[in-house]
Design goal:
324 residues, alpha/beta, UDP-N-acetylmuramoyl-L-alanine:D-glutamate ligase, eight-stranded mixed β-sheet, four-stranded mixed β-sheet, 31% helix, binds adenosine-5'-triphosphate, binds magnesium ion
Length: 324
């Protein structure tokens, strides 16, 4: 039977980055949900200055991240029987990720993310996502052993059933790290409770944490991130991680809240920040289970390195690089 350090579950996508000088940021003060938009001339041909074709998807990115940091890693995902699916599998294998559990769908095509960015305008990008096979995830018969499971954001309609099957591994002492998606957060803290109680590390950004805490009927107004992390930790996970983009990250374990400021980075593209942070954080805990300050440091270093490049997997650090 196969023995892994960690198995990641969730999406694998083809990420395509287009960068152009030609669009504009336009404002609509009257629309509360859409203050700012990227606009192009109707009917125009827009020239693109740079195209990047990268591997992406939460489970795929974190698998590459864990493997780079020396963990024996397997990827549980679904791709299409197409060129993109083949490419993603080959890329994962180049990262020494075990792909023998990757399912290949004969009908639905591999998921795509199209990231359209305006050159020279800070944070001006819009992401288009076609989830494809990432939305019809099925867990194959679990005939492997693993020390950890990392669940990336799931968007498939059967997610609740999937979580039940995965968390069943808790009986064998497997540890769980989880980065729920909006789909799960919308279900609310009450519905998520039975999985939260079994989660070793829950990783969310500030907005997502607020959504979770709010859905539990708790006040979020005026709460500092440090306190937000404390309140969220009480909803079940052993360790609650709240990332706050360029303001850093917090980790609460029920006794203390730790903070790490971001590692310096010349930010080129922030795609992959969350995934690389999670890979660094959980890998550190894999080697040193009780050292939260170091886990925060590894998360920050890994994400700072990835956002130096276009693509969610370029810049992922090795164990040697992250400890230096
Ligand atoms: N501009 C930045 N400069 C330095 N570090 C950053 C920056 N943005 C993000 N990071 C690092 O990445 C971590 C995770 O970022 P963030 O809080 O944006 O995650 P996220 O919202 O889950 O991202 P994603 O959109 O990738 O899911 C931060 O805690 C920080 O360490
Ligand atoms: Mg995220």
């Amino acid at each position: 039977m196969n023995n892994f350090d960690i198995v990641t579950v969730g999406g694998a996508m083809r990420d395509i980055f287009f960068s152009t000088k030609e669009g504009k940021v336009v404002r609509d003060e009257k629309d509360p949900l859409c203050h700012q938009m990227i606009a192009f001339e109707l009917g125009a041909k827009v020239y693109v200055d740079e195209v990047n074709f990268e591997s992406g998807g939460g489970a795929n990115n974190t698998a590459a991240g864990f493997s780079s940091l020396g963990l024996k890693t397997a990827l549980l995902t679904r791709v299409g029987s197409d060129r993109e699916g083949d490419g993603l599998i080959k890329d994962a294998q180049r990262h020494k990720v075990d792909t023998s559990f990757v399912e290949i769908d004969q009908k639905v095509s591999t998921g795509f993310t199209f990231i359209l960015g305006l050159q020279g305008v800070k944070r001006a990008q819009t992401i288009f996502a076609y989830r494809g096979t990432s939305d019809i995830l099925k867990i194959p018969k679990i005939n492997f052993k693993t020390k950890w499971v990392y669940i990336s954001s799931l968007s498939c309609p059967n997610w609740s059933n999937l979580l039940d099957r995965l968390f069943d591994l808790k009986k064998q002492g497997v540890k769980f790290a989880w980065n729920p998606s909006n789909v799960q957060l919308k279900a609310g803290a009450k519905k998520l409770s039975r999985w939260l109680q079994q989660t070793d590390v829950l990783i969310l950004n500030e907005d997502e944490t607020k959504e979770l805490v709010f859905s539990a009927g708790q006040k979020i107004k005026g709460l500092k991130v440090r306190d937000l992390a404390k309140v969220a930790q009480k909803l079940g996970p052993k360790v609650m991680v709240v990332t706050v983009g360029k303001k850093g990250a917090y980790a609460a374990d029920g006794n203390k809240v730790y903070f790490q400021k971001p590692w310096p980075s010349k930010v080129v593209n922030i795609t992959g920040a969350g995934d690389s942070f999670a890979a660094g954080f959980v890998s550190s805990l894999f080697y040193q289970p009780d050292n939260l300050p170091r886990a925060l440091l590894w998360g920050s270093k890994n994400s700072a390195s990835v956002i130096n490049f276009i693509g969610a997997q370029k810049g992922l650090l090795s164990k040697k690089q992250i400890v230096s």
